TrEMBL record, chain A:
The chain crosses the membrane at residues 38-56, 76-94, 123-145, 165-187. It comes from the Bacteria. This is Beta-carotene 15,15'-monooxygenase. Keywords: Membrane, Transmembrane, Transmembrane helix. It comes from Spongiivirga citrea. The lineage of its organism: Bacteria, Pseudomonadati, Bacteroidota, Flavobacteriia, Flavobacteriales.
From TrEMBL, chain B:
Residues 12-79 form the RNA polymerase sigma-70 region domain. Belongs to the sigma-70 factor family. ECF subfamily. The keyword GTP-binding does not apply. This is Sigma-70 family RNA polymerase sigma factor. The keyword Hydrolase does not apply. GO terms for molecular function: DNA binding; sigma factor activity. It comes from the Bacteria. GO terms for biological process: DNA-templated transcription initiation. It comes from Spongiivirga citrea.
Length: 210, 164
């Protein structure tokens, strides 16, 4: 290709303004604006938000599990949820740290992109698992609290018992799923924006292997 | 890292800085973006320098870090993108006014390259640097066969952009 040969000739003869040693020294102490740095900060913030919201929701929902009928005390349930939530946080924090450490700028282009995506996906999985477990926790609390509420008891007395429970479960399920769904969609948007270009390039490089 | 490490790094970088300039030439098309990317590559090289063991040539290692920074790590600001768009428009106008000279051909070539995606730009860069398919495969993480196939496709694509 003639044009490419012409370009090659120009490529090797063209000189750019040279940077002095003094300027290089100065650059070494400047802050990087690397995407990986931002991905790290955002991931850590997300993990921390997960930790804080889990602690908050667990400490503020104990009353839901002690029913006001005086007969039922499910206060042991939050303890189980708390233990599971702690295990989830520890597991994903370690996994994220390990995956993040694998990111190395002197890997080949494809490996670097893959490692960044994997580290980021760890946090995304953490958010998914947290939202699901949080949703189950909230739904259980709501179910127990509602099951002794006057409105439900009236429904329970005047209808088939199974139908009353199904209506209650359906309402709780729809409300919780809607709220969690909105949070999930917002998160997906942020996640997508942060990795848009990287995902595009990774797809492009993976296409070459097909 | 010690002062000695810093000094030897700066010396090596100064000697090999043309590699970074060439990466910037492919991935940016204005002076300010060129300088920004140059600085980011320098910072990334410096951060990764402790891992450079000297079993590969410094220049070979620079190709990897430089391209990885340009393709994956570099964050283009909106302000910068706007400036690039303006430059391209001005460039298009001036290119149309030129006669069919070598300079015009070169400008059109650079313009065509800037229309490629990041991966294609990397392949063109490695081609212009006379890297063989083994080196291209090692830098990009793809097989030699795929590197060869993709390189031919990129050349065809460039041809199409230049002769629509």
């Amino acid at each position: 290709m003639d044009e490419l040969e012409l370009l090659k000739k120009d490529w090797n003869t063209r000189t750019d303004p040279q940077v002095s040693q003094d300027d290089i020294y100065k650059m070494l102490h400047k802050k990087s604006s690397s995407k990986v740095k931002w991905i790290f900060y955002i991931s850590v913030i997300e993990l921390l938000i997960g930790v804080v919201s889990t602690i908050w929701s667990l400490s503020h929902s104990n009353e839901n599990f002690i029913l006001n009928d005086g007969k039922h005390d499910y206060s042991w349930l939050p303890v189980i949820f708390e233990s599971v939530a702690c295990l989830i946080i520890v597991y994903y924090a370690i996994k994220f740290y390990k995956n993040y450490k694998k990111i190395s700028v002197d890997d080949d282009a494809k490996t670097l992109m893959k490692n960044i995506i994997v580290a980021r996906r760890t946090v995304k999985n953490y958010i998914t698992v947290s939202l699901i477990s949080g949703g189950v926790f909230v739904m259980t609390g709501l179910f127990l609290a509602s099951s002794v509420s006057p409105i439900f008891l009236e429904l329970y007395e005047n209808n088939n018992h199974l139908v009353a429970y199904l209506v209650l479960i359906a309402i709780i399920l729809v409300i919780t799923t809607f709220i969690i769904g909105v949070i999930w969609l917002l998160y997906q948007l942020i996640y997508g924006l942060l990795l848009r270009n990287l995902n595009k390039n990774y797809k492009e490089i993976k296409k070459l292997e097909v | 890292m010690t002062k000695e490490d810093e000094h030897s790094f700066v010396k090596l970088l100064e000697e090999n800085q043309n590699i970074i300039h060439k990466v910037c030439r492919i991935y940016t098309n204005n002076y300010s973006a060129h300088n920004d990317l140059f600085q980011e590559i320098t910072i990334q090289l410096w951060k990764a320098f402790p891992k450079f063991r000297g079993d590969a040539k410094f220049s070979t290692w620079m190709y990897r870090v430089g391209l990885n920074t340009a393709i994956t790590l570099y964050r283009k600001s909106k302000k910068r993108i706007k400036t690039q768009e303006i430059d391209t428009i001005q460039f298009k106008l001036s290119a149309q006014e030129y006669d069919n000279t070598e300079e015009e051909q070169l400008k059109l070539m650079y313009q065509a390259i800037h229309q490629l995606n990041d991966i294609e730009k990397a392949l063109v860069f490695l081609y212009l640097e006379d890297k063989n398919y083994k080196e291209i495969s090692d830098t990009m993480g793809i097989s030699e066969v795929n590197a060869r196939v993709k390189m031919n496709r990129v050349k065809t694509k460039l041809k199409k952009i230049l002769n629509p």
